Amino acid sequence: MGATLHDRAGVGFAVMTAPVDDRALLIVGGGRMGEALVSGLLASGRAAGDLVVAEVASSRRAELAEALPGVTIVAEPVPVGSAVLAVKPPDVPRVARRLAEAGARRLLSVAAGVTTGAIEHAAGRSLAVVRAMPNTPALVGAGAAAICAGSATSEKDLQWAEEILGAVGVVVRVSEAALDSVTGLSGSGPAYVFLVAEALVEAGVLDGLPREVAEALAYQTLLGSARMLVEGAGSPAALRAAVTSPGGTTAAGLRELERHGVRAAFLDAVTAAARRSRELGG
Ligand SMILES: NC(=O)c1ccc[n+]([C@@H]2O[C@H](COP(=O)([O-])OP(=O)(O)OC[C@H]3O[C@@H](n4cnc5c(N)ncnc54)[C@H](OP(=O)(O)O)[C@@H]3O)[C@@H](O)[C@H]2O)c1
User: With a threshold of 0.85, does the pTM exceed it?
Assistant: First the structure.
C-alpha cells in the first residue's frame, strides 16, 4: 500500500500499489447493502477469508468486524481483481477510478442511477462492468435484482454477478435501458407493498380488531400470498378467482378495490417511478 491521498474530506484513500489479489472479493462500502451482500455470501458458503470489506467510517468498521467474523475489514480498498461497489452513487466514479488504477478487472455496481458508461468512463480503461438494481428485501435474503452488462462484459462476468446477488435473492438479466422500469417495479416496489400492508392494518383496526392482531394477520397474508405466487401455485388471476366465490365476501371486497381504481393506481405508480428514474438518470 503506498501513499495516502486526501481527496474526500477527512478521508484517506490509499494509492494502491500492492500486487492484485485474485482470490479475494472486495466489497467497497460497508453500509446496509454491503453488509447484506457479505452476510448472504457467507450464508451461501463463501469462505470468510476470501471476503474484504472497505468502509470509511471507523465506528461502522467496528460493527462490521463484530457482525462478520473472519471477514477482513479495512479502511481503504485493497488491490483485487473483482470488486463490488456498494457506496452511495456520488462516490461511485471516484472509487471505480481508484480500483481500476489498482488493477481491478471487473466491477459490480449496485448504486442506483450510475450508468455502466459513467463507470467505464471514470475507470479510464477497459474493464468489465456489471450494473445492478437490487431492492431492500435483499437485507433479509429475499431481494429481487436485475443486472445489465457494460460494453466489455462477458457471459462469465454476468455469471459472477449473478452468483453474488443470488446470495441475497433472485436475479434477472435486462438491457440497461430497462433498468428504469425495473426501478419503478421492484426497486420502488417494496414501498408500494408496505403501503398496502399499512392500509390493511388500518382497515382491520377500523373494523374492530386489536392493532397487533391486525398486524399479524396482514403481514402473514402478504407473506403467504407471495409464497403461493413464487412457489408456482398459479397465476395471480387464477389464484384470485380460486378464492372468489360467487356473491361472496371476497367478491364484495374486490368490487370496492376495482371501484377505487386500485389496478390503475398501480399501473400509474410503476410508470411514474420509472419516468422519475429516467429523469434522475438523464
Ligand atoms: N439499501 C438498499 O436497499 C438499496 C437498494 C438499491 C440500491 N442501493 C444502492 O446501494 C448502494 C449502497 O446503499 P446502502 O443503503 O448500503 O447505503 P449506505 O448504508 O449509506 O452505505 C454506503 C456505505 O459506503 C461507505 N463509503 C462511501 N464511500 C466509501 C469509500 N470511498 N470507501 C469505502 N467506503 C465508502 C459509506 O460510508 P459513509 O456513510 O461514511 O460515507 C457507507 O457506509 C447505494 O449506491 C444505493 O443506491 C441500495
Answer: yes
The residue assigned the cell 455470501 is 41
Tens of pLDDT, residues 74-129: 999 999 999 999 999 999 999 999 999 999 999 999 999 899 999 999 999 999 99
Location of C-alpha cell 361472496? 248
Q: How far apart are CA 192 and CA 195, in angstroms?
A: 5
Which residue puts its alpha carbon closest to atom 35 of ligand 1?
29
How far is Cα 232 from Cα 162, in angstroms, rounded to an integer? 22
Which set of grid coordinates corresponds to residue 168? 441475497
> Could you tell me the three cell numbers for 165?
446477488
Distance from Cα 104 to the centre of ligand 1, integer Å: 20
Q: Give the residues surrounding ligand 1 with Cβ less than 6 Å away.
A: 28-34, 54-57, 60, 86-89, 91, 95, 110-112, 134-136
| Overall size of the chain counted in residues | 282
Task: Find the helix or strand (DSSP H, E) in which 145 lies.
Answer: strand 143-149
